[in-house]
Amino acid sequence: MITVRIRLACVACVLLASWTMPPAGAEPPVAQPEAAPVVDPSISPSDGKIVLFDGRHLDDWYTWLMASKYADPKGVFQVKDGVLRVSGEELGYIATRRNYHDYHLVFEFKWGERNWAPRVKNARDSGILVHGVGPDGFTGAWMPSIEANIVEGATGEFIMVMTKGLEPTPHDVSLTCEVRRTPNGDVVWEKGGGRDVFGRKNRKHVNPSYWDPGWKDEFGFRGPRDAEKPIGEWNTMEMICAGELVRVILNGQVVNEGFAASPRSGRILLQSEFSEVFFRNIELRPVAGEHAPPPVPQPQP
User: Fold this and answer.
1) How many other β-carbons are positioned within 10 Å of the β-carbon of residue 34?
2) Would you say the C-alpha torsion 124, 285, 93, 234 has a positive or negative sign?
3) How is residue 22 annotated by DSSP?
């Protein structure tokens, strides 16, 4: 009787294991980052500087890649010698675990040497995305957000990152900018220019003030008034997100600005987009009082 009971117990253990083990060849479930699904109240560096990356670890960030979701098997994002290297080999991003609002974002970046297919011969390309909202990968590769593009010849270009088409979603973004239009219909930021809303119904990119109308999507492009430093040198980029205002500063020069931003808080993302790029000294500073949105014109009596 004892022998029978032991044998039955063994059979039960085998059956239980077969029910709970994944089938042969199946991938184990990917562990979700602890903070990614959580919609928590946003915070602000109003009481002092918040260091997002100090050159030692990425504890305040998580990664998301189109090909592998929350896993990074190719080491697209790596920290070495105080610098975050983004290889660019896969489409995706590294995102803050927390949501932020009302801050002065400051960081440094410089380009690496290589691009990956399908952009081997195209301009080096990355980006900083603010006010990220909604599920990871909601737009395909990215999270809905307001992007300040980091791209050769047009760093600081605004892109409203959202799903395609005219059908609105709960995670749409928009920004109003003062702009001028070139004869070819390109949009360039110009202080005091005509105001236009960019979002679901107007998907135009807002080029930075120094943008060259002869810009080409080619590796190593550099315009005659380019605000970026030469390849291999560190650039300082800033984004002031204060209430409805979003301002981009590149190497001390204001290159783009928008207001009436929606949303006005969210995650901060760094892109991986087929180009090698390096980041360091990423921090949020309190917003100074002089950074106010431009006044809305009042109708004449």
Assistant:
1) 9
2) positive
3) P
50-53 and 275-285 beta bridge pairing: antiparallel
3-state secondary structure 254-286: EEEEEEEEECCEEEEEEEECCEEEEEEEEEEEC
Q: Which of 91, 98, 101, 97 is nearest to 142 (CA)?
A: 91
Q: 42-285, which class in CATH?
A: mainly beta
Q: Contact 273/91 with Cβ under 8 angstroms?
A: yes
φ, ψ for residue 179, nearest 5 deg: -140, 165
Residue ranges per domain, the chain? 42-285
Residues β-bridged to residue 278: 85, 110
H or E element that contains 155: none
When mean pLDDT is compared over 10-14, 33-37, 57-61, the highest value belongs to 57-61
8 CB-near residues (< 8 Å, 6+ apart): none
Q: pTM for the complete prediction? A: 0.84
Task: Express each pLDDT in 67-79 by its tens digit.
Answer: 999 999 999 999 9
The four Cα atoms 240, 141, 127, 53 give a dihedral, to 10 degrees, of: 70
DSSP 24: T
pLDDT tens for 280-296 read: 999 999 998 755 555 55
Q: What are the C-alpha distances in Å from 96 to residues 47, 132, 143?
A: 19, 9, 12
Answer whether residue 20 shows pLDDT above 50. Answer: no
pLDDT, position 294:
52
pLDDT higher for 28 or 220? 220
Q: What is the pLDDT of residues 269-281, one digit of tens each?
A: 999 999 999 999 9
57-75 in b/e burial notation, b at 16+ Cβ within 10 A? eeebbbbbbeebeeebeee
Q: Which pLDDT belongs to residue 39?
A: 55
Task: Give yes or no for a contact between 297 and 121, defined as CB atoms under 8 angstroms apart.
Answer: no
Q: Furthest-apart CA pair in the chain: how many Å? A: 101
Alpha-carbon gap, residue 63 to 115, rounded angstroms? 20
